[in-house]
From TrEMBL:
InterPro entries the record matches: RNaseH-like_sf, RNaseH_domain, RNaseH_sf
Name of the protein: RNase H type-1 domain-containing protein
Sequence ranges assigned to domain RNase H type-1 in this UniProt record: 1-78
Taxonomy of the source species: Eukaryota, Metazoa, Ecdysozoa, Arthropoda, Chelicerata
Gene3D superfamilies noted in UniProt: Ribonuclease H-like superfamily/Ribonuclease H
PROSITE patterns: RNASE_H_1 (PS50879)
GO molecular function terms noted in the UniProt entry: nucleic acid binding; RNA-DNA hybrid ribonuclease activity
Organism: Araneus ventricosus (Orbweaver spider)
Superkingdom, natural source: Eukaryota
C-alpha cells in the first residue's frame, strides 16, 4: 500500500497521463476504504487528478518490464530511503487494550485485597459481568451480615445464635432463619466452582438480590439473635 501511495504521489507531479499497474489486489481494494490515513491521502490525490489511472495485473506472469520492476523493489528494500508508516487506529486501540489488560492482570494477581473476588474472577476482562449492587456485596462480603457490621463497630458480635459465625454465605446456605433463600451448601473442594455458578446464573443472582435486600431492610431483626425470621420472597 505504501508503494502504491508513493507511486500516486509521483504521478501527481508529472504533467502527463500516468497509468499505474499493481499486482496487489488487496492494496487496490484498500483504496476504497476511507478509514486509514494512508488511503485517505492517496484518495484525495486521485480525486483531484483525473490523469492518474490505476490497474491490476496478475502476479507471476510474463509481462514486459515487470521483472525489472521487481528488481527495483528488492533493491529499494535494501538501499532505499526508510519510510514512516503510521499505525492504524484499530491496531493502536487493540494494542493499548492488550497493554491495559496485561497491567491490570499483574496488579490483580499480586494484590493483597479483594482475594475473595479473585478466587471467583481470577482473569481480568473488559466484558461486563451484569452483577447487581447486591451481587457485588455478596461476592465481596461487604453486605448486611453480622460479621460485616461487627467489623465496622456497628454490632457487638458476629456470632449467630444458631450456627456459628454469621456472614453472607452463612445466610444463603445454612442459616435456619431464612430458609426461603437457601442454596445447597457446597462441599469444600467445590466452593470456588459454587461461587462462580451462583453468580453466573440469572435466577440465582435474582435470589441473592432478594436476600441482600431483605437483610438490609431488616437489619434490626438480624441483630437480635433471639428473633426468629420467616420470610418468603415475592
Amino acid at each position: 500500500m505504501l508503494a502504491l501511495k508513493v507511486g500516486i504521489e509521483w504521478a501527481n507531479t508529472a504533467n502527463e497521463e500516468v497509468n499505474i499497474w499493481s499486482d496487489s489486489e488487496s492494496s487496490l481494494q484498500a483504496l476504497k476504504s476511507f478509514n486509514v490515513k494512508i488511503t485517505q491521502e492517496a484518495q484525495l490525490i486521485l480525486l483531484e487528478n483525473a490523469r492518474i489511472r490505476l490497474g491490476w495485473v496478475k502476479a507471476h506472469i510474463d509481462i514486459k518490464c515487470k521483472d525489472f520492476t521487481d528488481t527495483l523493489v528488492k533493491e529499494a528494500t535494501m538501499d532505499g530511503i526508510p519510510a514512516s508508516l503510521p499505525f492504524a487506529k484499530c491496531f493502536l486501540k487493540k494494542h493499548l487494550l492488550e497493554l491495559s489488560l496485561s497491567y491490570s492482570q499483574a496488579e490483580w494477581d499480586n494484590g493483597e485485597t479483594g482475594r475473595s473476588v479473585y478466587s471467583i474472577i481470577p482473569k481480568i476482562s473488559n466484558k461486563e459481568l451484569h452483577w447487581s449492587r447486591e451481587c457485588i456485596q455478596f461476592a465481596t462480603g461487604h453486605g448486611p451480615s453480622l460479621s460485616y457490621l461487627k467489623r465496622f463497630g456497628l454490632h457487638s458480635t458476629d456470632y449467630c445464635g444458631y450456627e456459628g459465625i454469621e456472614n453472607l454465605l452463612h445466610y444463603v446456605t445454612r442459616c435456619p432463619l431464612i430458609l426461603s433463600y437457601h442454596h445447597k451448601e457446597p462441599s469444600p473442594q467445590f466452593i470456588v466452582h459454587w461461587w462462580k455458578s451462583v453468580l453466573s446464573i440469572k435466577p440465582s443472582r435474582r435470589n441473592i438480590d432478594n436476600l441482600i435486600t431483605f437483610l438490609a431492610t431488616n437489619e434490626d431483626l438480624i441483630k437480635s439473635q433471639n428473633t426468629t425470621l420467616s420470610h418468603t420472597p415475592v
